[in-house]
Amino acid sequence: MDTKKYEKHYSESKLWDKIKKCAKKVGKSAIINVLILYYAMALGKATPSQIAIIIGALGYFISPIDAIPDFIPGGYTDDIALLVATINALSCCSDTEVVRKAREKAAEWFD
Questions:
Q1: Mean per-residue pLDDT for 77-85?
Q2: Which of 9, 19, 43, 64 has its CB 3.0 to 4.6 Å from that of 59, i.e. a possible disulfide?
């Protein structure tokens, strides 16, 4: 999937707004995936080319217009699949500090 067209939807404030809006609906594990991508950038673990990919994936998550619209039942399925595929493709996302920070932040909201 070409995520370049979704880069324009990304901003840190839009990301936090989207998380607040859909966290309970998509669940803890999906939000951890979002946070892994965010923290890979925020902690300086991602290269510039990885950051471009991450921004595209997060922009896709933020955008209400994608393959399966978010407002219909199952509408986040495509978003979650893209997040997981992006994490699996990028080595920066398996960094111990990145994963720890993502899990800690998600625990603040869900536990």
A1: 94
A2: 9
